[in-house]
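Dear colleague,

As promised, here are the two records you asked about, laid out in our usual form so they can be pasted straight into your sheet.

NAME FIELD: protein one
SEQUENCE, THEN STRUCTURE:
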Amino acid sequence: MSSLALYRRYRPESFAEVIGQEHVTDPLQQALRNNRVNHAYLFSGPRGCGKTTSARILARCLNCEQGPTPTPCGQCQSCQDLARNGPGSIDVIEIDAASHGGVDDARDLREKAFFGPAHSRYKIYIIDEAHMVSPQGFNALLKVVEEPPEHLKFIFATTEPEKVIGTIRSRTHHYPFRLVPPGTLRDYLGDVCGREGIAVEDGVLPLVVRAGAGSVRDSMSVMDQLLAGAGEDGVTYAMATSLLGYTDGSLLDSVVEAFATGDGAAAFEVVDRVIEGGNDPRRFVTDLLGRLRDLVILAAVPDAADKGLIDAPADVLERMQAQAGTFGAAELSRAADLVNEGLSEMRGAASPRLQLELICARVLLPAAYGDERSVMARLDRIERGVQTSAGGAAGMPPMGYVPGPEAHGGAAQAPAAPVPPGGGPAA
C-alpha cells in the first residue's frame, strides 16, 4: 500500500477526473479544442476544490506532444513528467506566493520568464496563493503578464481573488471554482473506498462529507484518517462519530423525542449523558440544530431525500420522518429558532452545560413565553394532545386556577368575587 496521502494518491490527471467543477472544466476543454488558449488564467475558489490540480492539468494539456489538447496522451515525456507521481517538468514552475510574493521575487521571475522553455512547447508559471503577492510584486509582474512572449503562460490560483490587483485580473481569464455538492462528493468517496478495498458502514460517508464541508481535499484527508484506523470490520459508524467528534444519532433521537412528548426528565437525562460521555456541549447543540433543520424540511417536503435536500442513510431517514410527524410545524420552527439562539449564546459561555439545560427548558416550556411563536407551539401541542401549562410542568393547572363545582361533578358556575384586603364582603 502506498504511503502517499489519499488526496495525493487519487489526484486527477485529466479534466474528466475533476469532480464538481464542470462549469470550469468544460469551457477550458473547449478552448483547448478550438486552440483559443489565453496567456493568463485566474483560478479562484475555496480551498481544496481543485484549483491547483486543474492548473497542473492545464499545463499538461498545453505541453502534451499531441496538444494543445483537452485530453493529455499520458505517454509522452511531458505528460509523464507532470503525472501524479512524476518528477515534474523544468518548464512548469510552481511558486508559492505565500513565501515568494515580494517585489524581489517578482523581478526574479520576470527576468527568467523571457528565457524559452527547455524541452516543452510552453514555459508555464503556476502561482499558488496569488493573493499573497504584494502590490509592488504585482506591479513588477504587470508588464510581462500584459505582453508576454509567445512561449509564456501564467496560471494564478487564489482563495481571495479580490486581493489580486485589478490590472492583473483584467489581463486574465477568470474561472471561479465552487465547493463540491454533497451528493457528488459522497459518491466519489464511496468509489475511493471501493478501490481501497475497505468496508465502510452506512452513515459514515455523510459524516465525512459534512466534515469536509465541500472541499475534496479536506474530505479525502478525513477519509484517509478513518481508513487508517479501520479494523477488521472496516470503518464503523461508532468509530467515525467518536473520531470526528460528532454526536451519536441515538442521543439526537432521544432529545428530539423528549421535545415532542414534553418529557423534561428524558431531555435532561440526555444532557447528563452528553456531559458524562465527554461530548462537547457546543458540538451537541450544533448537531441538534442540524437535526431540527432536517425535520423542518421533512415536515414541509416529505420527499426531501429523493430531491436531494437531505443526505442521510435510509434507517436514519426513516426515524427522522417519524419524528417530523410527531411535531407541529410551529413547534419545529420555534425549537430550531431557540436552539440557534442558544448556540450563539454558548460562544464564550463559562458553563456550556448550564446553557444546554436552559436551551432544553426553553424548548420544553412554550407556555412560559408569551410571544407569537410560543402561542403557536402551544396550539400545536394542544392539537396533538400533549399537555402544557404556564406553570411549566406537563399536566399541572396554570397558576391562579380555581377548580369549580364541575370538577366534582356539579354545574359550572361563575368565578367567585375577589375578597377585599379587609377580609369583609365586597361593597
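NAME FIELD: protein two
SEQUENCE, THEN STRUCTURE:
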Amino acid sequence: MNFKRRQFLVLGGLTGLGFSFLGKVLQSPPAESADTQLSNAVPELATPTTPPLFRFVSVADTGTGTKSQYAVAEAMSRYHQKNPYNLVILAGDNIYNNGEIEKIETVFERPYQYLLKKGVKFRACLGNHDIRTENGEPQLKYAGFNMPGRYYTFRHDSIQFFALDTNENADWKNQLIWLEKELSRSNARWKIVFGHHQIYSSGVYGVNEPFIKELTPLFQKHKVRLYINGHDHHYERTRSINGTTYMITGSGAGTRPVGRSEWTEYSASRLSFAAYDVYSDRILISAIGTDNLVFDRGVISL
C-alpha cells in the first residue's frame, strides 16, 4: 500500500474532514444523542436452541481511565457473568493519550480485573495514539495484550482472526503480502479481520478510500465475513458489503456524533461494546450499553 504521508492523513481519517461524503455515501445529519438511534426497535432474531461454538466481544478506544471506560468495563463484566466468553478483541487506542505503558494499571488492569481474573484473554492491535510512544513497542511487549507482532493471526477452532497494524507508518508492503498469504492458506469456516482504523464509517472520519481500494478486494476474494475496528468513537454495523460486515465498536470510553449511510444497518452514539455468538452457519451480534441492555442485534450468515 503505497501511501504518501499527506494522503494517509487525509484519507485515513486523521483530519476527520472531507471524505465523510465521498462516493455513494448518503449520510443524514449527525445524531444529537443516542436516543434518536435507540428509538428504533431492536431487531427480533430467532433464539438458538443450542449454545454457540464460540463467543467473544470487541471494544476499542478504551484507554482513558475515565468513568466512562470503567462503566463499559463493568457492563462487559456483567455480560460475562450471564454469557461467559474468553476473548476480547481490543481494537486499538489502548492507552491515551500517547501510549504511555506506565498507565497500564489505570487503563487496563484495573477496569478489566474481573475479566482477567476469570482468564479472559485480550488480543489487541495498535491505534494511532498507541504508536506515539516508541512506535508502540512497549505495548507489543506487554503480555496482557497478547500481541506477538504488529500484525498476526490466531485461531479458535473454526474461526481465524487476523490482526492488522493500520497506522500510517505500518509496513504495508510486507503486511499486505502476509495478509494475502495467510488468508489464502486458511481453511477456517470464519475469517475475521480487525484493526484500529475505519473502512466504512458514518462518523467523524468517514469512509477510508485507500483501505477500500487495497483491503476490501482481499476480503471479498478470501471470504472475510467480518472486519472490526475503532478510531471513530461510536457504534456502527453495516449491511454485508460484498460479503463482509463492518463493525465499529469505538465507543469503549467516549462517544462522538454519528449519522447514517446507505450501507448502515444500525448506528448509535452510545458507550458500548459488541458481543458475537459464533455458530457453524451464522454469527449473532449484540450491541450492549452501559445499562446492560441490548440495543442492536444483527446476523452474519455464511
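A couple of things worth noting about protein two: The domain at 54-301 is CATH 3.60.21.10 (Purple Acid Phosphatase; chain A, domain 2). Confidence is low (pLDDT under 50) at residues 3-40.

Best,
R.
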